[in-house]
Amino acid sequence: MNFDDLQAAWDSDKGDDIPVPGNLERLKTVKTPVERIRRNMRNEFVAQVVLIVIMGFFPSLIKFHSVFVAPYYIMYTMMVALSIFYFSKFYFFYKRLNTNTLNSKDNLYEVYYDIKLNIEIYKAFSFSLIPIMIVIVTMILANKRMHDGNMDMLSNRIISAFITVFCLAIALTIALTELWVKQLYGKYLKQIKRVLQELKEE
């Protein structure tokens, strides 16, 4: 039974003048942030699948040297495997995240902690891709140097630059992931938490 059914049943009661309970109205306000989380998940899934498909053609698009093709596809396969693993988790979470189940405070608590858990899983997924992406970017840069005729890949300057890029990439990925999650999901999680606090105070 969804919110509209509950409200219709309440209104059809003998006491027509009895107002709809406040907590039911508050529960209904949670539908919007939950629906937006579901929408953002759909959009992000499509975008990531498109990106993964495009990355499969990188060696052809940027004319990879033959020495890098096999290592690239090893990294690519690892990335696809990780994506499938985490996408399956997100799919089941998406199926559980149904607004029709938000008909009690207990259900809302369950949804709230489920969202929190999956946000952490999302972060773990993003962080697990860092080493793979660093290796891929390194191969792209090395490939460019080979095309430019510069074969000196182990000079002190190159090694220092690689370490610097490695550290910056980790810091940047962590910062962007936190910002991205906060923008797409965190603010809606706060709205749900606010409703839970209001229900708790009653």
Task: Please describe what this structure looks like.
- With 202 residues, the chain is an all-alpha fold.
- The protein has one domain (29-201).
- 82% of the residues lie in helices and 0% in strands.
- The protein has eight helices and no strands.
- It has helices at 3-11, 22-29, 31-55, 58-61, 66-96, 105-128, 130-147, 156-201.
- The longest helix has 46 residues, at 156-201.
- It is elongated.
- The two termini are 24 Å apart.
- Mean pLDDT is 79; it is low at 12-21.
List keywords for this structure.
single chain; mainly alpha
Short description:
This protein has eight helices and no strands. The chain has 202 residues and is mainly α.
Shape: elongated
Major sheet description:
none
- Total number of helices: 8
Would you count the extended β strands for me? 0
Question: Which helices and strands, and how do they pair?
Answer:
Elements: H1 3-11, H2 22-29, H3 31-55, H4 58-61, H5 66-96, H6 105-128, H7 130-147, H8 156-201
